Amino acid sequence: MASDLVIVYHRQPYEEVEENGKIVFRENKSPNGIVPTLKGFFGRVDKGAWIAWKLAEDAANPEFERVIEIEDSYGKYSVTRLPLTPDQVSSFYHITSKEAFWPILHSFKERYNYDPVDWPTFREVNWAFAEAAAAEAAPGAVVWVHDYNLWLVPGYLRKLRPDVKISFFHHTPFPAADMFNVLPWRREIVDSLLSCDVVGFHIPRYAVNFVHVAQSLLEVGNVVRKDVNPDFVWEGTALSDRRVPESVQYQGRTIRISSAPVGIDWDFIQERAASEETRENAVAIRSELGDCKLILSVGRTDYTKGGVQQLESYERLLQAHPEMHGNVRLMHVSVGANRSMAAYEEIQGEIEQVAGRINGTFGSFEWQPVALISTAVPFRDLIAYYQLADVCWITPLADGMNLVCKEYAAARTDGDGVLVLSEFAGASVELSSAVITNPFSHRSMDTAIEQALAMPEEERRHRMAMLRNTVQRYGIKAWAEDQMSYFSDEDVLSEAS
Ligand code: GDG
């Protein structure tokens, strides 16, 4: 049966585990993140499909099935597993996407590595995704493509299936033209994105940048703009904008531009936060901490997340405030997703070095100033840490949105706690009640953490109430509604919802 909604996302939507010598498919262990959210859309259609890749070595197994049918709590959907060779994965994902695109998207020109890119392989892999989506889509279906590593899919798909509706969502920032146009494949990429019916971003700034880039490269006209959502900050922070593009025209077609921030599953976090298990975890952590204040920092190990700069600010805090010694701890969770890549190994090494220096300089037998955690913390424990952390310190140098800061606010059912947030995280546009900081300035970083640690309870509660209000209001359901609103009336998606 053909699918009304095809999600094209490079990762598979489940975990494969071996049970009694047989491979079985299980729902992802991690309940947070974007995959469960996307699967939630399958509940709105009769039949959904997901396109992802799988290592060709596994596909060489005679029992390998390219398309598998799944029925789970999210609905009925098929998963197409595109067999890619290790060389294709390395070229398409690790090299082109992570060494060339990723630094440019996050405005790190100096980390951009062009030489090893094999563009024909990138095209070939994107073509395979487009073909697989074309094979699954029912007439007039919605095909929803995610993120920069699939940038060429919309263009190919439009050729293969002119009838389908194509939506593309960027989870990363979209940089200004001076930065984006470093990519030599810029015209091809933007031409592909303009084959979509809808191109989506988290915040107005990224949409503004995209339209400038498109106008700098191609004959794009009739840009229709509107005022930004008044709930967002439209002046004063690094990523705020007053006006946002709503649609553009290209080659006689209208392309809608959406800016809607991805949120978190509020109800799920409320339920977890209220559970007995979380309470017990929190009690155990608190008894280990004693009277120490807890500062929590959580993120993937990546140069964009600003881990080194944050640890250096913590070092300066301890230098300037001997009275804090023994009275504060930083739990720095930095989990490596791409351990084999040189850029990430380097950053992990730097983080370990600064953390080691801090513990060596200031620590004692009784007090360890930084706990550096490099392996994933189970989500149930993470919620308990969120609930106990006096300060959640989220200071990326660039970040499309950042969901950790929203999870923190959602988990603070007690209404206390302080969020310190970088103005270069997309979330800062929504969460202006956080203590907003500029991670490129020592002074700004240092005063923000001092302010957070010294903040009176009344102010903490006032700011947290505003944060919780926004995080609840713009949760994952609001994002889902926004995304689906582009496919209304005649479309299967809204009918079934
Ligand atoms: C991209 C964009 C955008 C982290 N450590 C642990 C853990 N996590 C979970 C968090 C959160 C998720 O991972 C990270 O979300 P982010 O939004 O911070 O980041 P990216 O993975 O970089 O994702 C980003 C996002 O897409 C959505 O559009 O916000 O800007 O880069 O849910 O809780 N979870 C567990 N243990 C950990 O140690 N269980």
- Low-confidence segments, given as residue ranges, are none
Output the strand order for the largest sheet. Answer: 5-6-4-1-7-8-9-12-11-10
Structural class: alpha/beta
Anisotropy-based shape: globular
Helical segment tally? Answer: 18
Structural domain count: 2
Average pLDDT figure? 92
CATH superfamily of the largest domain: Glycogen Phosphorylase B
Which range best describes the helical content: under 10%, 10-25%, 25-40%, 40-55%, 55-70% or over 70%? 40-55%
Indicate the CATH topology of the largest domain: Rossmann fold
Radius of gyration: 23 Å
Quaternary state of this entry equals: single chain
Q: Provide the list of bound ligands, each named once.
A: GDP-alpha-D-glucose
- Could you name the CATH class of the largest domain? Alpha Beta
User: What CATH architecture label of the largest domain applies?
Assistant: 3-Layer(aba) Sandwich
Largest sheet: 10 strands, mixed
Distance between the termini: 19 Å
Percentage of residues in DSSP E strands: 15-25%
Helix and strand layout, with pairings?
Layout: E1 3-8, E2 15-19, E3 22-26, H1 34-40, E4 48-55, H2 56-59, E5 67-72, E6 75-84, H3 86-105, H4 119-136, E7 137-146, H5 153-160, E8 165-169, H6 177-180, H7 186-193, E9 198-201, H8 204-217, E10 221-227, E11 243-250, E12 253-259, H9 266-273, H10 276-289, E13 293-300, H11 307-320, E14 328-335, H12 342-362, E15 370-373, H13 379-388, E16 391-394, H14 404-411, E17 418-422, E18 435-437, H15 442-454, H16 457-473, H17 476-485, H18 492-496
Parallel strand pairs: 1-4, 1-7, 4-6, 7-8, 8-9, 9-12, 13-14, 13-16, 14-15, 16-17, 17-18
Antiparallel strand pairs: 2-3, 5-6, 10-11, 11-12
GDP-alpha-D-glucose (GDG) is lined by residues 30, 32-34, 171-172, 262, 298-300, 333, 335, 376-379, 382, 399-404, 407.
